[in-house]
Design goal:
heterodimer, B: alpha/beta, Rossmann fold, 38% helix
Chain lengths: 261, 143
């Protein structure tokens, strides 16, 4: 009994400490993000490379997933709407569910699987190889040079790719709508635009940026926690990915609570 | 050596296995990083500048290579160039024969240092006593 209570206590302390460290690191990074002196030619190059790896290289796979997913979601949703005679709710379904919930969620999963794991491993390898020590030797701040460009890229890529996903799904919706209901382009646009709320769009953009911030920040922080042994790399990548997925769930739940308050 | 490094940190250009090249950057990016970060030198200017310096050392062909693809001499030259790009560089060699594992003496080091003479303010070598002979004839060698 005492051992069980001790385990709960240890788990609570570890979790609280980890959360505190992540938030402290997040505050440090936000302060640098807002400081103009952080940005220089070297950090811009890192940003451009990262943007290419995260947002450009992924495009074929991302568009493929968006088309397949968009077709499935639209096909099912339109069939249900037709059967129940709920055409008036078409816009709300597309904007309130597909654009604000599905698009960011699928996008964050794809980016987390592809880029977060890569960033986590990259930072851990840099630490093990003493490349981070080298930066310190040459008075190069890793937060400014390595972390801030990656985090900005994470936020920007999330916003852009999620918007692209929404556009693809809405475009497929137009085809399905005209096939199922015989809707014209103008009528479809009206339906979607009437259902769009500025607050929802602001919340979804903020949610995407928050996703982007944390799915980059957490792998960086966990990568830094690697020891100087190669065997620590898979351990920190595993831990990092678990924490990334936990953060995705927490942000998703928080955004739903904010939207429906 | 640690106290020397700490005392000259702002102008330190370290050539050491403890300060490796970044493995996922090309040689030119590793070298140009110093000026790009500290002086905000635009990348195209930094690339041209680095290319000219690599030409000086006869190493232009390694410009786009990455660390794992370099020979020990090429790696040493890349590290030396990176160190010499620190403003008023105090270049510190930490056991250079640990990097140049297949060289018998320090002629290669001396020759490359001469070619970069205008960039370097001071040079210091830290090595084991028993390596002293390999630097034979150098002034002011202290182990």
């Amino acid at each position: 009994m005492i051992a069980a209570i001790e385990n709960i206590g240890r788990f609570t302390l570890d979790t609280s400490l980890s959360l505190r460290n992540t938030l402290t690191f997040a505050i440090q990074v936000i302060i640098r993000l807002l400081n103009l002196r952080t940005y220089n030619s070297a950090s811009r190059m890192v940003f451009i490379n990262q943007f290419y790896f995260t947002s450009v290289q992924i495009l074929p796979l991302f568009l493929f997933v968006a088309v397949i997913f968009g077709s499935l979601v639209n096909g099912m949703a339109f069939q249900v709407i037709k059967n129940l005679g709920l055409y008036d709710y078409l816009g709300r379904l597309l904007m309130g569910f597909v654009v604000t919930e599905v698009a960011p969620f699928v996008t964050v999963l794809l980016i987390a699987l592809r880029s977060s794991s890569a960033i986590n491993a990259e930072i851990a390898v840099m630490k093990v190889n003493r490349e981070l020590n080298m930066l310190d030797t040459f008075n190069i701040d890793p937060i400014n040079y390595l972390f801030v460009p990656r985090i900005i890229n994470g936020m920007l890529s999330m916003v852009l790719l999620s918007s692209l996903f929404s556009l693809v799904v809405l475009a497929i919706g137009l085809f399905v709508s005209s096939a199922v209901f015989g809707t014209s382009v103008d009528a479809y646009n009206d339906t979607v635009l009437q259902a769009a709320s500025l607050l929802d769009i602001v919340i979804v953009l903020f949610k995407c940026a928050t996703f982007g911030f944390f799915i980059t920040l957490i792998p960086i922080r966990l990568g830094l926690s690697a020891s100087m042994e190669l065997t620590s790399i898979p351990v920190v990548v595993l831990g990092g990915m678990v924490k990334v997925f936990l953060s995705i769930v927490v942000i998703e739940v928080l955004s739903l609570i904010i939207r429906f308050i | 050596m640690q106290s020397f490094i700490a005392a000259h940190k702002s102008r330190l250009g370290l050539v050491s296995l403890e300060a490796p090249l970044i493995a996922n950057l090309a040689v030119w990016s590793n070298i140009a990083l110093i000026r790009q970060y500290h002086e905000n030198m635009p990348w195209h200017e930094a690339r041209a500048f680095t290319e000219a310096l690599l030409h000086r050392l006869g190493m232009a062909s390694i410009m786009d290579k990455r660390n794992p693809a370099l020979t020990s001499e090429e790696r040493f030259c890349a590290m030396l160039l990176r160190a010499s790009l620190v403003r008023d560089a105090i270049v510190v060699f930490d056991k250079p024969f640990g990097i140049l594992t297949n060289l018998r003496d320090g002629c290669f080091i001396m020759e490359n240092l001469r070619k970069l003479d205008d960039l370097i303010a001071e040079t210091h070598i830290f090595d084991y006593n028993w390596e002293k002979e390999r630097y034979g004839g150098w002034d002011g060698t202290e182990s």
